[in-house]
Amino acid sequence: MILAKNPSRQDWGKLTQRPALKQQNLNQLVNEVFQAIREEGDRAVLSYTKIFDKAEVENLKATPEELAGAGDKISEDLKAAIRLAGANIEKFHRAQTPTVVEVETMPGVKCWQETRPIERVGIYIPGGTAPLFSTVLMLAIPAQISGCKDIILCTPPDKNGQINPAILFAAHYAGVTQVFKVGGIQAIGSMTFGTESIPKVHKIFGPGNQYVTAAKQRATQLGVAIDMPAGPSELLVLGDDTAKAEFIVSDLLSQAEHGTDSQVICIVKTPSLIPKIQEELLNQLPSLPRKEIARKAIEHSKLILMEDDQDCLDFINEYAPEHFILCVENESFYLNGLMNAGSVFIGNYTPESAGDYASGTNHTLPTNGFAKSFSGVNIDAFCKKITFQKISEEGIKRIGPAIEFMAEAEQLKAHKLAVTKRLLSL
Ligand SMILES: NC(=O)c1ccc[n+]([C@@H]2O[C@H](COP(=O)([O-])OP(=O)(O)OC[C@H]3O[C@@H](n4cnc5c(N)ncnc54)[C@H](O)[C@@H]3O)[C@@H](O)[C@H]2O)c1
Ligand SMILES: N[C@H](CO)Cc1c[nH]c[nH+]1
Ligand SMILES: [Zn+2]
């Protein structure tokens, strides 16, 4: 990890930078794949799947038998764990169900707002280096609760052209309507344009690597909404001498193992934690199956000594981490001042993995500083709000003159007349 001791504010820019592929090259590739899919549909999808996933896929769509039979291929313990996580995710998201807002803004002028589900949603499930079946729960359960009619799932096939059975089981369990064996840019392109096999959707959800994230951002320019840019995982931990180095390092590694472009930042408030963290990293990293990935991510990650509370808080808000672990005595100072973060984990016994899998909160979260302007996935993301108004005769008499004056002042005569005619009729 890159070590920085009480860095000056001028140096924060470098410390808050994320590792990223060159955006121009990424965008060029996305445009090329998108154009091929728009022109050639499934043929292009299958061809890019061969190039990027090294997989020959016969039928892009998983059959009902594949979905129903997936449960036989995974252990009962895993199925029970998925159901436990699913129940918690359902509880937390169902509690977010929006209520009808109804206000009589003045006598005879009734306004209200109702919620409707987005009818057809696409959910992307990462599967490049690890089959993230937990993401199926995070996206399909809130989609179901919101009442989305079609839930289309895309995930990369393995080298044999198959989808991991835990992803299929979770999809079946969470009520996904159709599953497709396609990943990366080609998955996002397919859901953006629609192909012979894969339906076009109204909104695309889900995390992914930098290719997926760049493709989602392009989709927004082509008329398809997205949840947010949810790219390579990141974590910021803040610890004082009440924090345990062993736990902190296990959390840092949990996000570092996602990908070489993951980034973790550890801010310590006391110098004595620095050697403990460094030692723990040496202890814990070598035994991880994904140590090579985690090591690369750790190389560009940062260990920062910052002793002043206000500096720490300002740095955290500037970085806007996807995940923030807070392990300090004066936790309320940070909780009250926190402005930008995807999801927060408080105290020594709240590992970040809890939110990744089973506490109930959503793990699809904004990265790369987008926590400054985006929320993580929640029920609202699957819904639209429609506003209604009904004005009585009494109401139009009261509100009408104000509308006439405003329309006149904007030099929009037809707007004014729409009111005047009604007032004259009364
Ligand atoms: N922010 C969040 O909420 C969140 C949640 C979970 C996971 N993640 C992140 O999702 C990512 C998952 O990444 P992944 O790679 O394992 O799976 P992925 O499914 O996102 O990407 C795999 C696909 O990328 C494409 N691809 C790979 N190399 C390519 C290349 N050179 N050119 C073109 N396309 C290429 C392939 O089509 C492949 O199917 C990780 O970065 C992880 O940190 C983020
Ligand atoms: N930490 C990821 C979000 O950045 C989510 C995840 C899924 N599985 C394990 N982790
Ligand atoms: Zn994770």
From TrEMBL:
Family: Belongs to the histidinol dehydrogenase family.
Role this protein plays: Catalyzes the sequential NAD-dependent oxidations of L-histidinol to L-histidinaldehyde and then to L-histidine.
Protein name, UniProt field: Histidinol dehydrogenase
EC number: 1.1.1.23
The organism of origin for this protein: Reichenbachiella carrageenanivorans
Higher taxonomy: Bacteria, Pseudomonadati, Bacteroidota, Cytophagia, Cytophagales
Binding site for Zn(2+): 255, 258, 356, 415
Segments passing through the bilayer: none
Pathway annotation: Amino-acid biosynthesis; L-histidine biosynthesis; L-histidine from 5-phospho-alpha-D-ribose 1-diphosphate: step 9/9
SUPFAM superfamilies registered for this protein in UniProt: ALDH-like
Record-listed substrate binding positions: 233, 255, 258, 323, 356, 410, 415
Domain of life: Bacteria
List of catalytic residues: 322 (proton acceptor), 323 (proton acceptor)
Gene name tied to this protein: hisD
Enzyme class: oxidoreductase
Binding positions for NAD(+) per the UniProt entry: 124, 186, 209
Gene Ontology molecular function: histidinol dehydrogenase activity
Entry annotated with the keyword Kinase: no
